[in-house]
Amino acid sequence: DGYIRSQKKFCSAAPLKYKCPVSKIITDCEKFRKSYNLTVHEEVFKVHNLLHFMEKNTRFAVSGGRQMVGVTHLTPFQSSDTRRVFGNFKCSKCVKYWMENGVNKSDFREWSNAYSYKDCYQTCYQCDLKVYPYTQRALKKTELHFDDRAKHDVNRCSRCEALHKPCYEFEV
């Protein structure tokens, strides 16, 4: 899931539409194999198991005769509870530019938020595109009680919009 969402062409605004070529996964596995000096037999076994795992797992959609793989959920976090998690967002429309060691660099605009939820988006501050997190993780104990409510923009949070109140008022 994380590998697919980390691909350059992955669009956080439409996470279910992106399909990653299985050949790219195999190529990256081969690079991994070489960097850790694994034998070819070990790696072929792992790739076969990886494809089998993705076909059996509900988090992945394998299509095109096992040629393409996509995700089946809007967000990485898929739990039955409604607790908040830490999410990283990347707008696929807004590009930022900077100079690093005399080289021009560019990448998509990114932000993080401690008010991220299952299948909920946040709106980009620059272009108003609805963006789903590409990674999510459980909050650390130090972050659970950290009061960053002033930083949480309730007008850009889909959960706040659905609840018609700030989402942090509904925390357990």
From TrEMBL:
Protein name: Zinc-binding domain-containing protein
Native organism: Spumella elongata
Taxonomic superkingdom: Eukaryota
Highest classification ranks of the organism: Eukaryota, Sar, Stramenopiles, Ochrophyta, Chrysophyceae
